[in-house]
Amino acid sequence: MQHRSRRRFLTVAGGVTAAACVTFMVPAARAQMVRTPLNNMPEVIRSLVGTATLNIGKVKLDIPPLVENGHLVPLTVRVDSPMTEANHVKSIHVFTERNPLPEMATFRLGPRAGRAQVTTRVRLADTQNVVAIAQMSDGSYWSDTAFLIVTLAACLEELPA
Question: What is the pLDDT of residue 78?
Fold first, then answer.
């Protein structure tokens, strides 16, 4: 019986230690990513929206918070829109801050799309923020941001000098 309790103690102790490490590593990794973007994502987003306000809401970016492999990461973007002729999503843009190029994908939509939702798989170079921006037919821009941790990176090309 003592053998089982020792094994159980070691299992619980290992789990607590791992949970503590992840708890302290995630905020530290996120803070580092905010300080060290590898590309010019903010400038590219500003060139897209121009002087318009980038609103938070209407857009839902669904991406796993932790992925083992950055080569095929599932990504879904949904936009709350009736998709009528008068009120629809014109385009959805997806940006990353640590891939070699900041604009990862652009999807053009119209009122006949039925619903404003796109699903794909993407390559991610590293742990980073991903931003989805929807351009509406009234000229407004809406966004959502998701942070994810990538344990095995993809997109290992160097940035142009």
Answer: 98
- Domain membership of residue 66 (yes or no) is yes
Q: Exposed, middle or buried by CB within 10 Å (0-12, 13-18, 19+), for 94?
A: buried
> Rounded CA gap, 114 and 82, in Å?
8
- How far apart CA 60 and CA 145 sit, in angstroms, is 8
Residues 17 and 60 in one domain: no
pLDDT digits (tens, 9 = 90+) for 112-130: 999 999 999 999 989 999 9
**Dihedral through CA 98, CA 66, CA 148, CA 105, nearest 10?**
70
Residue 33's pLDDT is what?
47
Q: Which residue has the tokens 């500003």?
A: 46
Instruction: Please state the domain count of the chain.
Output: 2
> Which residues constitute the domain of residue 19?
1-36
Q: What's the first-to-final CA gap in the chain, in angstroms? A: 65
Shared domain check, 58 and 8: no
